[in-house]
Amino acid sequence: MKDKILFVSFFLAIICNTIYAQQYNWEKLNTEAYPGKQDDIYFINENCGWYINGYGKIYHTINGGESWILQLEKKGTFFRCVAFIDSLTGFVGTVGTDYFPNVTDSVPLYKTTDGGKNWLPVNYSGKYVKGLCALDIVKEEFINHGEIGYKYHVYGVGRVGSPANFMVSHDNGISFTSMSMEKYCSAMYDIKMFNKREGFVCASVSEDIEKSHASILYTANGGNTWKRVYESKRPYENSWKLFFPNREIGYATIQNYNPDSTVSIQHFIKSTNGGKKWKEYELCNDYKARSFGVGFIDDNHGFIGTRYSGYETKDGGKSWQKTDLGMACNKIRIIKKPNGELYGYAIGVNVYKLKKNL
Fold first, then answer.
1. Which residues of 247-260 are buried (b: 16+ CB within 10 A; e: fewer)?
2. pLDDT digits over 207-222, tens only?
3. What is the rounded CA–CA span in Å between residue 348 and residue 292?
4. Which of these, 65, 57, 55, 72, lies nearest to 27 by C-alpha position?
5. What CA–CA distance (Å, rounded) separates 323 from 309?
6. What are the beta bridge partners of residue 335?
7. Could you tell me which residues come within 8 angstroms of residue 206 by beta carbon, excluding any fewer than 6 positions away?
8. How far is the C-alpha of 334 from the C-alpha of 24, rounded, in Å?
């Protein structure tokens, strides 16, 4: 009798997992063709969003990606990251000069206060910032004359190829300060702040790719100081993007640039204790499958973009299968609304939308 109960429970679990896994898929959106990897996309709700690319272009939609308008084309600018506080106030970071060809714009950060119609350079104090690779925004509640008010903290990190710098605003993006991160790492590629104090960045330890190891840094004081909580042992590596489906469970992608094609195992890392410790796992055995973006629907069901395809797991990374996320999917944003429903977008060579199956 006990064996029968266990068998029925196991069978029902498989059915439930299968039904849940089939609830969502990715749908390719109709966007302007781009010859390479586009780096970032950001939505303030499931309908209103922006994406950017290395041609200095910013696109905007108000209908969930059914149609897009080109808001800006700034030749000589390589837009690398984007984030918005609300429908009017937003920021775009650039990779800066001396890394990609034909890039002449040395302004690291632009700001809009009219929903992207106009963009102005952001003034900042502190260390010179060569470029940025990622932005994050934290919304903080506070008591304002007997009512709940909100304050926004804006964070930026960069850049690929070095130097490593950190930017922050604690006044809704009105003023920014910057600091060098060179004593902690050579470059930073992504940032996730849980609140104005605690957060993580993806990084590399050396500007020399032959000596570079992937690294994860943690701050408990808003970026004033950082602690290395993970470092890979293999050369030619960096940590590219990270995603926390909840406060305790986190995933991050590892990029390997080793020219030896026999070094073909691609890795990702996972934390189950809030980022205090990270453990390496195998994504696939494919020399060409360099990892980019990562995003999860829940603790176990998630996606990683690679150079030529996407990968999907339904068991927390124990196993992965190829899925259609296009080429070089660099950023995956999956948001849970207060009612528990999800919406998500992903960008690489193409733009994708997370769709719930009927």
1. eebbbbbbbbeeee
2. 999 999 999 999 999 9
3. 9
4. 65
5. 7
6. 343
7. 186, 212, 213
8. 12
The CA distance from 283 to 267, in Å, is: 5
Q: How far apart are CA 209 and CA 186, in angstroms?
A: 10
Q: How far apart are CA 69 and CA 311, in angstroms?
A: 30
Q: Which domains does the chain have, with CATH numbers?
A: 2-356 (2.130.10.10)
pTM: 0.93
* pLDDT at residue number 22: 53
Task: Name residue 305's beta-bridge partners.
Answer: 310
Give phi and psi for 209, each to the nearest 5.
-60, -30
Helix (H, G, I), strand (E, B) or coil at 246: coil
In the block, which residue shows the tokens 């209103």? 48
The average confidence (pLDDT) of the chain is 94
* Residue 226 phi, psi (nearest 5): -135, 150
CB atoms within 10 A of CB 350: 19
Q: How far apart are the first and last CA of the chain?
A: 37
Spell 113-127 as b/e; 16+ CB within 10 A means b.
eebbeebeebebeeb
Q: For residue 155, which of 97, 217, 203, 222 has the smallest C-alpha distance?
A: 222
Per the CB < 8 A criterion, the answer to whether 334 and 26 are in contact is: no
How many CB atoms are closer than 10 A to CB 165? 24
Write 182-187 long-range contacts (CB < 8 A, 24+).
Answer: 184/217, 184/226, 184/228, 185/215, 185/217, 186/162, 186/212, 187/133, 187/158, 187/159, 187/160, 187/161, 187/162, 187/163, 187/238
